[in-house]
Amino acid sequence: MTDVVEQGEEGLTKSALKKKAKEEEKARKKAEKAAKVKEAEQVREAAEGPDYAAAHYGKLPLHQSQSRPNRKRTDIATLSAKNDSEHVLLRARIQTSRLQSNKMAFLSLRQRTDTIQAMIAVDDKQVSRQMVKWAASLSDESIVLVHGTVVKSPESIKSCSIDDVEIQVSELWLVAGLEGRLPFSLEDASRSETAPEVEGQFSRVLLDTRLNNRIIDLRTQTNQAIFKLQHAIGDLFRDYLNNNGFTEIHSPKLQGAATESGATVFKVGYFKGDAFLAQSPQLAKQMAIAADFERVYEIGPVFRAEDSNTHRHLTEFIGLDLEMTIEEHYHEVKELLDGMLKTIFKGLKERYAKEIAVVGKQFEVEEFKWREETLTLTFREAVDLLVEDGVDREHLDDINTENEKRLGRLVKAKYDIDYFIIDKFPLELRPFYTMPDPNDPTLTNSYDFFMRGEEILSGAQRIHDPEFLCRQMRAKSVDPESMKGYIDGFRMGCPPHGGGGIGLERVLMLFLKLNNIRRASLFPRDPKRLEP
Amino acid sequence: MTDVVEQGEEGLTKSALKKKAKEEEKARKKAEKAAKVKEAEQVREAAEGPDYAAAHYGKLPLHQSQSRPNRKRTDIATLSAKNDSEHVLLRARIQTSRLQSNKMAFLSLRQRTDTIQAMIAVDDKQVSRQMVKWAASLSDESIVLVHGTVVKSPESIKSCSIDDVEIQVSELWLVAGLEGRLPFSLEDASRSETAPEVEGQFSRVLLDTRLNNRIIDLRTQTNQAIFKLQHAIGDLFRDYLNNNGFTEIHSPKLQGAATESGATVFKVGYFKGDAFLAQSPQLAKQMAIAADFERVYEIGPVFRAEDSNTHRHLTEFIGLDLEMTIEEHYHEVKELLDGMLKTIFKGLKERYAKEIAVVGKQFEVEEFKWREETLTLTFREAVDLLVEDGVDREHLDDINTENEKRLGRLVKAKYDIDYFIIDKFPLELRPFYTMPDPNDPTLTNSYDFFMRGEEILSGAQRIHDPEFLCRQMRAKSVDPESMKGYIDGFRMGCPPHGGGGIGLERVLMLFLKLNNIRRASLFPRDPKRLEP
After folding, report:
1. Helix A466-475 crosses helix A484-491 at what angle (to 10 degrees)?
2. Percent of chain A topping pLDDT 70
């Protein structure tokens, strides 16, 4: 008997099998649905008798764009006492719900960074006991469509961002419910990261748990604000450069050869050969300069195959890169970069105070400080400051991460600022394409920019002369033949130029003091994480 | 003896070898330079006797930011008769040079999309015969620093974009010269692509030759204009969406699993495992919607491992993608996309007339036409139009590229427009995540947008219900287990939503009728091209 069945199953064609499975699935679903509907009806009727509010609540059918009545939808953020007694229609998430009595329930409704209180109370024609019960039974994070009236609140509602009005619900419809349990509550995910934790009282959500369930994690008001600020940084960067005569370019991420440093490049199978993912748009930006673009910028992904598992490294991040011709001196570039960053800081502070405050509730945001005249130290002056503070000079051929932070603290203590520049790095610390200083061949025309003691921008004047470039490559043991296309780009005449590259996520992390770069990336990638 | 020498060489340490090579190179360079300088001096003196203009011209030393006199530089584009007799200082390329007599030479100076004539004429103290000769001897495409006086031109200078003034040169300095010959002249690279070619008279430059020498090719005024327009499209897209409440996101291009269709995805070595390059931000955009972002867009690279060698396929291109929640009907999305595209067309036409005209000199640009009320056909209506025109209905299960173009011609003939929409595509032509039509399960809530008979945008309402999504996946033979993370994203409640994706290069190519998408990409990538 078993044999026969197995043979029979195997005897079916693949498509017939699929069809069969589909039909079974369909029948099962139908039966399940009917049972659920019946159960719900029985419960209701047993409890309350026929429901006079039945037409005012329930689960909506799957939204397939069935109709278009063109009714206005309202944003929670726009509501205040001035809207008192207005009728509103809105879609929102249920952040929390609470059954006050068997006649009244409260919902906290959320849209992005805002919440408002909704009250649903039994009356004799619109809202029934069954409706109140159903409303309170909806899972947190359900999406609902709410009809209601704006009502001035007698006292400030502390639990909501809109604190002077609430919504008196007249209809409530479930747009999308949940299947299964939330991995963590948004309340837990929103707790202060800096307030002392009282044991047993509540729990914080670990970063890994958040990132494994990033879709839920991103819904917190904090994360909504963080990514509005990420968008703002990009816009401020772009506006500043557009106003300064720059052209936005898009350079290919697929490269024919491993450039700059082969060890940290991802290899891609490319038809019958190989390609490599660009570690930066450095070469493309410079080629655009050789092609007369004069001033270019690019906002795009940058790939680093470094097995670094630190708080500030990602394998894919967004580079804000620019390159420009130099007329007289590379400080033209340094000053433009400085002006751009200060414009970003100022723009965030002035136009995004609300979002910064939202993030500040979860992360201790010491206000980010800078001054109009940016402090610029030479590398030597920076080293001297560290030596004065007790660091051994012989460990200061380079300034490592630890000493960078120490320097940040020294500058903060001395000047009360979180932003400064170091100029004139030693030749041996910079890539082969960096222009040496005209007076001291051990130094270069290069700079790094720092926020809260961490590097966020690196840049320099580049070598635009092909012969000199080849010489410098050989001195750094890079074979000019391996980068022939790049060098050839300069043989047909290239103007003097310089530029810099910024990590978007680093600027965001350091401005807000998020302490881990993964919090500043929508779906972060590191050596151990490729999902979601 | 040979043995000894070889041993000796091999016996040196690597760094000593490098040092030796460096010293030899240095000595060689020094000798070479001295010889050149001497030769030049001899030539000069033999010809003309001592040169009273010697301090007014020559090759500048390598620009290493030696000084910063803060002298104002002038943009050619800003000059006109109003600047008559002003002294100017500017850096430009020599587009062409012509020795008129042994007392006078003309240079055509170029900055991006503009050219101006410069005259260098012997006088008795500033400009010598040697200086004129030297000026005329500079290679085309050399970069020079010019001091001079703006002089009103007695007649219109037809060969230059600035036609009412020229520059009388007083000093001329070579900033960067050329090593070797240009692969083609910019004059040849700028010839009309549509005017009939007279045999033997002049040659056009083939696309492959251009792309192999893209840095030179990009310098043409046409290409400078094309990439200003590419930048403009991105800015107009972004501004429109920023004004409509969208948040810009950056989603990872490195994916843990091959999504959508495994056959056309690039595989990347990722530490000890594999990753895949995102074929679109589709899944990430939808996850952002499930994470409450409400309205998102992304501008970023999209990778397609398709071995398509056509005029309109690239393996890497820039996607302009957006996704938004739907309140009542997916036409909200279609209308927003339509409004966005019309704003782009209008913005280009109104604000970039100059650049469009520059491109028009090389490519026959039939003016791109659209109307305020966009023509929208259903898929069925589009098929009917083709059938009326004589296409066999049974070949119209899908509308192939050839029939798309035919449809474009039909619409152009009937309505005199180059832009229209097709709505309601059959289910079998769309991906599994497309929402079916509520009334006809063989159709979907999906649309394509067309420019000059070619598709530039594809989009739809998406399925936001996880169970229904799994069912549709199985119906299209996609294993839901293979995309678990994606589906799980919808289990915690996702609002109804839709969106679309645009190819930036396609919009640019079709608006300007460039006929090949490679012309709309800075450094194009196709199955056969990974360089430069």
Report:
1. 150
2. 91
Burial call B90-124: b when 16+ CB within 10 Å, e when fewer: bbbbbbbbeeeeeebbbbbbbbbbbbbbbbbbbee
The model's confidence at residue B13, banded by pLDDT at 50, 70 and 90, is: low
Test A234 with B248 for CB contact under 8 angstroms: yes
List CB contacts of B372: < 8 A, sequence separation 6 or more: B342
Predicted local distance difference test score (pLDDT) of residue A531: 87
CA distances to A67, B329, B371 from A71, rounded to whole Å, are 11, 11, 27
Interface contact flag, A216 B287, Cβ < 8 Å = no
CA distance A499 to A324: 6
Cα–Cα distance, A504 to B151 (Å, whole number): 48
Question: How many Å lie between the alpha carbon of A305 and the closest alpha carbon of chain B?
Answer: 8
Report which DSSP code applies to B443: B
pTM confidence score: 0.89
Nearest residue in B to A316, CA atom: B252
Interface contact B290-A215, CB threshold 8 A: yes
Strand order in the sheet with B295-303: B247-248, B295-303, B316-325, B497-503, B454-462, B446-451, B419-423, B375-378
SS3 label, residue B515: coil
Strands A419-423 and A375-378: parallel
Containing A114, the helix (H) or strand (E) segment is strand A114-121
Least Cα separation, residue B389 to chain A (angstroms): 33
Show residues of chain B in contact with A111, CB under 8 Å.
292, 294
Per-residue pLDDT, averaged over A90-109, amounts to 95
Per the annotation, the verdict on B506 as an active-site residue is yes
What number is the ipTM of this complex? 0.89
The answer to whether the Cβ–Cβ distance between A475 and B270 falls below 8 Å is no
C-alpha B414: how far from its chain's center? Answer: 33
From A263's Cα to the closest Cα of chain B, the distance in A is 12
**Which chain B residues are closer than 8 Å to A90 by Cβ?**
none
Q: What stretch of H or E contains A188?
A: helix A186-189
Specify which residues B504 forms β-bridges with: none
Can B312 be counted among the known catalytic residues? yes
